[in-house]
Amino acid sequence: MTVHDKFLALGTHYGKVYLLDVQGNSTQKFDISPVKINQISLDESGEHMGVCSEDGKVQVFGLYSGEEFHETFDCPIKIIAVHPHFVRSSCKQFVTGGKKLLLFERSWMSRWKSSVLHEGEGNIRSVKWRGHLIAWANNMGVKIFDITSKQRITNVPRDDISLRPDMYPCSLCWKDNVTLIIGWGTSVKICSVKERHASEMRDLPSRYVEIVSQFETEFYISGLAPLCDQLVVLSYVKEVSEKTEREYCARPRLDIIQPLSETCEEISSDALTVRGFQENECRDYHLEYSEGESLFYIVSPRDVVVAKERDQDDHIDWLLEKKKHEEALMAAEISQKNIKRHKILDIGLAYINHLVEKGEYDIAARKCQKILGKNAALWEYEVYKFKEIGQLKAISPYLPRGDPVLKPLIYEMILHEFLESDYEGFATLIREWPGDLYNNSVIVQAVRDHLKKDSQNRTLLKTLAELYTYDKNYGNALEIYLTLRHKDVFQLIHKHNLFSSIKDKIVLLMDFDSEKAVDMLLDNEDKISITKVVEELEDRPELQHVYLHKLFKRDHHKGQRYHEKQISLYAEFDRPNLLPFLRDSIHCPLEKALEICQQRNFVEETVYLLSRMGNSRSALKMIMEELHDVDKAIEFAKEQDDGELWEDLILYSIDKPPFITGLLNNIGTHVDPILLIHRIKEGMEIPNLRDSLVKILQDYNLQVDDLFYKNLPDEQVFIYGGIRRLAEENICESCLSPILPSDAAKSFSAVVFHCRHMFHKECLPMTSMNSPVQFCNICSAKHRGPGSAMLEMKK
Questions:
Q1: Which string of b and e fits 562-577 if b means at least 16 CB within 10 Å?
Q2: I want to staple 668 with a disulfide (CB 3.0 to 4.6 A). Which of 151, 165, 543, 699 is the partner?
Q3: Could you tell me which of 141, 164, 77 has the C-alpha nearest to residue 114?
Q4: In 111-184, which ranges are E strands?
Q5: Span 505-552, pLDDT tens digits
Q6: How many other β-carbons are positioned within 10 Å of the β-carbon of residue 205?
Q7: What percentage of the chain has pLDDT greater than the value 70?
Q8: Span 472-483, mean pLDDT?
Q9: Before 589, cis peptide (omega within 30)?
Q10: Is 29 within 8 Å of 6 (Cβ atoms)?
Q11: Closest listed residue to residue 506, CA positions, set 539, 466, 477
């Protein structure tokens, strides 16, 4: 059999040749010989046919013209090949093969002449003509002849000479004009015809052959055909029986392999079922192919099997057959422009049904989004299908909510399903679904019916509030939110401007969240006046105080009419903020405030009010008598900076030693300590007197390390009042440098004389053992009399 893109030519054992279309229907019949047809050859145009038979007959004729050549030889002719371009007048050539290879050419006078291309190496087994190259196989190997140069350019020897060439014939095929593929036994060789460089020719042919790939196969080769960069191989298979351990003929295989340089990679393999394969031999199979259609014909004695390259439709068929619906859908989406027999939607629907049958409802529902897309009718059909199997909940999250929009009944059906069994799921759908998808009044009534059975269910109440909100029934929604004390109540009020609806609900709002409520009320004074709020909170003074306190914090003047009221509110609910309020308010009636503070015995607040009203002496007296806190009294006197107050403080403290200590420690820079010291009764024991005196000196950057009296002359008398002036006369009379060092942390030692002269201790001469008394150098030099040392100070 020979294949052309347009038809098939089939020869029989009875000498007839049939032309068949690609569907296998007979279109023409030729009676060539009474015996077996050995081979048929067609040119590329499909207009000329060459036929040879077992009785030695050779015919070449035009299928659509009267052109014809007849020749009968005295031996069987096994092969024939016409020139691929036989239709051209310059290419009227063909070859025949028996025991030798003959080339027939038509001369310019329309006469045919023959020439021997090869002989002497056994029968010619196979011939393939491509372009200007003729390849043939005999018992010894494969030769290639260049018809242009009339030269044989190569000889590829047979590898396995142990195989009978008549039982295991050579398979030849041209991949292109310069690439020949040879299959013989289990060996495959890929040969490339190349041009020889001019410098290499000498007496050699202009072309040569290079074997670019050579490898062995697992089985015997019955036919070869190219498929892009791969090969299609028809293999004759022999296997060993496990029971009898004898070889037997198995089904032939059609493999696709990827040739490599020294090996190959199997891409796919199919075992073919043909009639009588158990009795067939390797020579009984042939592989023909149509390059244009990528069709492959496996010819056996009883059958012709057509194989074609799988397209995406075939791949999808296989995936669906194997229940791999997801992969089939993916393959269809990737190759949607190339598939012809399948539709993506049909594959998708089959996938959904497959998942439902397996019980994978969630996955099936999720796939609906992608597969059903915007087809509302299909969505509704699938929803009803899920309802029939009791799986409405599974599909609910994936229903379209905008484009497309399904019938309201679909959404209501699902909401009712959830309302009967899952309040939380029902609430979630109400939050997520736009309210225009379903009839809101129908769902509101359904929720109210359920609340009759469970009136305190917070989930249903909240959902009902959301439904009321969508219906713009804000009053009912607000009432539910307040009952539930839900955080969204303030957002609802702001969003829908419900301030007119909450004027009588201020107490409820304050009880729910006083801070948020007050902020909202103060931010919207133009909608709910301060007066209205204060009136509404009249029976809840603690809430009234919270509101007025925050109002005062924002603006000290807005609520001035309520400042008198706020005195009592602060006194009752927030005493820590009462004193700051009294200090910051200029509208507060002081007499009323004083009365309240005195009634409640709020000393600190009373002291402040008395001082603010100008009665500082009473305030000071209260501090001393009520608080007994000399530090606070001193601090108060410092704040007032009034000499009379200091006098009152000294008089009150003079008979109280602890108070005297406090005064000595704190008044050094405000009042001359001598005023206090002179009034101290002789013999009074004063706690920590020495430390207090040290503190006084520290106020002048001096620290007393040792204070003592010695048996000195009369003029060496210690005078307390001089201590203050000593700090001012701080120049060393010897070195004329400051007594106090520039670095206050640096230690120093100084000597002060009765004459008021001061010296650094190191600037005075050392005292002698006989006279330990030191004298002022200046006064001694002027003979003014002895000026003995009065005080030694160190720091």
A1: bbebbbbbbbebeeeb
A2: 699
A3: 77
A4: 112-119, 126-130, 133-137, 141-146, 151-157, 171-176, 179-184
A5: 888 888 888 888 888 889 888 888 999 988 988 999 999 999 999 999
A6: 17
A7: 89
A8: 80
A9: no
A10: no
A11: 539
SS3 content of the chain, % helix, strand, coil (to 5): 40, 25, 35
Least confident of 199-208, 255-264, 343-352, 695-704: 695-704
pTM for the model stands at: 0.52
Beta strands in 610-766 (DSSP E): 749-753, 758-760
How far apart are the C-alpha atoms of 128 and 41, rounded to whole Å? 10
Q: How confident is the model at residue 718 (pLDDT cuts 50, 70, 90)?
A: very low
Residue 245 backbone class (left: φ over 0; alpha: ψ -120 to 50; beta: rest)? left
Read off the tokens for 155: 């000889």
Nearest to 401 by CA among 429, 366, 426: 429
Which conformational region is residue 198 in: left (phi greater than 0), alpha (psi within -120 to 50 degrees), or beta?
alpha
At 650 the pLDDT is 76
Structure tokens at 289: 């192919």
Dist CA 40 CA 15 (whole Å)? 11
Checking if the pLDDT of 501 tops 80, the result is no
- C-alpha count within 13 angstroms, C-beta hemisphere, residue 658: 5
Residue 743 tokens, joined: 């670095």
Residue 121 burial by Cβ neighbours in a 10 Å radius (0-12, 13-18, 19+) = middle
User: What are 794's strand-pairing partners?
Assistant: 749
Distance (Å, rounded) from C-alpha 93 to C-alpha 668?
Answer: 139
Cα distance between residue 506 and residue 234, in whole Å: 93
- Per DSSP, the residues of 37-66 read EEEEEE-TTSSEEEEEETTSEEEEEESSSS
* Alpha-helical segments (H) within 497-561: 506-512, 514-523, 530-536, 541-554
- CA–CA distance, 446 with 365 (Å, rounded to integer): 26
CA atoms of 761 and 750, how far apart (whole Å): 5
Instruction: With CA atoms as reference, report the closest residue to 527 among 550, 543, 556, 506.
Output: 506
Round to whole Å and give the CA distance between 465 and 481.
7
What does 548-614 look like in DSSP terms, one character per residue?
A: HHHHHHH-TTTTGGGHHHHHHHHHHH-GGGHHHHHHH-SSS-HHHHHHHHHHTT-HHHHHHHHHHTT
**Structure-token pair, residue 204:** 């050699």
Residue holding tokens 């597969």? 371
Higher pLDDT, 768 or 37: 37
Q: Which residue has the higher pLDDT, 789 or 407?
A: 407
In the predicted structure, residue 447 carries a pLDDT above the cut 70: yes
CB atoms within 10 A of CB 550: 16
> How far is the first Cα of the chain from the last one, in angstroms, to the nearest whole number?
130
62 forms beta bridges with 48
Is the CB of residue 235 less than 8 Å from the CB of residue 253? yes
Q: What is residue 275's predicted lDDT score, i.e. its pLDDT?
A: 93
Per residue in 252-274, pLDDT (tens digit) is 999 999 999 889 999 889 999 99
Average pLDDT, the chain: 84
Most confident listed range (243-252, 469-478, 773-782): 243-252
Q: Are 185 and 246 in contact (CB under 8 A)?
A: no
| 20-34, 314-328, 437-451, 779-793: least confidently modelled range | 779-793
DSSP 766: P
Tokens 């005064």 found at: 663
Alpha carbon of 544 to those of 535, 629, 634, 705: distances in Å?
9, 36, 38, 62
Cα 58 to the chain's mean position, in Å? 76
SS3 104: strand
Q: By three-state DSSP, how is residue 253 classified? A: strand
d(CA 105, CA 91): 8
